[in-house]
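*** Residues and shapes ***
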Amino acid sequence: MRTLLPDPPPAECEELLERRRLWGAAQLLELFGPLGREAGLTALGNFNLGERDDYRIPDAGEPST
Protein backbone atom coordinates (compact mmCIF):
# COMPACT_ATOMS: atom_id res chain seq x y z
CA MET A 1 0.00 0.00 0.00
CA ARG A 2 1.40 3.39 -0.95
CA THR A 3 1.25 6.55 1.09
CA LEU A 4 1.09 9.61 -1.11
CA LEU A 5 0.98 13.29 -0.26
CA PRO A 6 0.28 16.01 -2.78
CA ASP A 7 3.01 18.50 -3.55
CA PRO A 8 2.82 20.85 -1.77
CA PRO A 9 1.46 18.91 1.20
CA PRO A 10 -1.83 20.04 2.76
CA ALA A 11 -1.70 22.78 5.37
CA GLU A 12 -2.69 20.21 8.02
CA CYS A 13 0.71 18.53 7.63
CA GLU A 14 2.58 21.74 8.39
CA GLU A 15 0.21 22.45 11.29
CA LEU A 16 0.93 19.01 12.74
CA LEU A 17 4.68 19.55 12.45
CA GLU A 18 4.37 22.96 14.12
CA ARG A 19 2.34 21.47 17.00
CA ARG A 20 5.03 18.81 17.45
CA ARG A 21 7.75 21.51 17.53
CA LEU A 22 5.83 23.56 20.09
CA TRP A 23 5.06 20.48 22.19
CA GLY A 24 8.71 19.46 22.17
CA ALA A 25 8.21 16.03 20.60
CA ALA A 26 11.96 15.80 19.93
CA GLN A 27 12.56 16.00 23.68
CA LEU A 28 11.04 12.55 24.13
CA LEU A 29 14.46 11.09 23.35
CA GLU A 30 15.86 12.89 26.40
CA LEU A 31 12.96 11.75 28.55
CA PHE A 32 13.05 8.09 27.53
CA GLY A 33 16.80 7.86 26.88
CA PRO A 34 17.83 6.63 30.35
CA LEU A 35 15.09 3.99 30.38
CA GLY A 36 16.04 2.82 26.90
CA ARG A 37 19.74 2.56 27.74
CA GLU A 38 18.89 0.63 30.89
CA ALA A 39 16.93 -1.81 28.70
CA GLY A 40 19.91 -2.15 26.35
CA LEU A 41 18.45 -0.05 23.53
CA THR A 42 20.41 2.39 21.39
CA ALA A 43 19.09 5.66 19.98
CA LEU A 44 19.96 5.97 16.31
CA GLY A 45 18.67 9.46 15.61
CA ASN A 46 17.64 10.22 12.04
CA PHE A 47 17.45 7.50 9.46
CA ASN A 48 16.19 7.28 5.91
CA LEU A 49 13.18 5.16 5.02
CA GLY A 50 13.73 5.21 1.30
CA GLU A 51 15.53 6.78 -1.58
CA ARG A 52 14.71 9.83 -3.62
CA ASP A 53 11.57 9.19 -5.68
CA ASP A 54 11.19 5.71 -4.13
CA TYR A 55 8.92 5.89 -1.11
CA ARG A 56 8.40 2.19 -0.52
CA ILE A 57 8.81 1.21 3.12
CA PRO A 58 11.81 -1.10 3.58
CA ASP A 59 11.96 -4.04 5.95
CA ALA A 60 14.42 -2.19 8.20
CA GLY A 61 15.65 1.37 8.51
CA GLU A 62 19.33 2.22 8.34
CA PRO A 63 20.92 5.20 10.09
CA SER A 64 21.47 8.14 7.76
CA THR A 65 25.02 9.32 7.27
Remarks:
- The beta strands are 47-48, 62-63.
- The longest helix spans residues 11-23.
- The two ends are 28 Å apart (CA to CA).
- The mean pLDDT is 76.
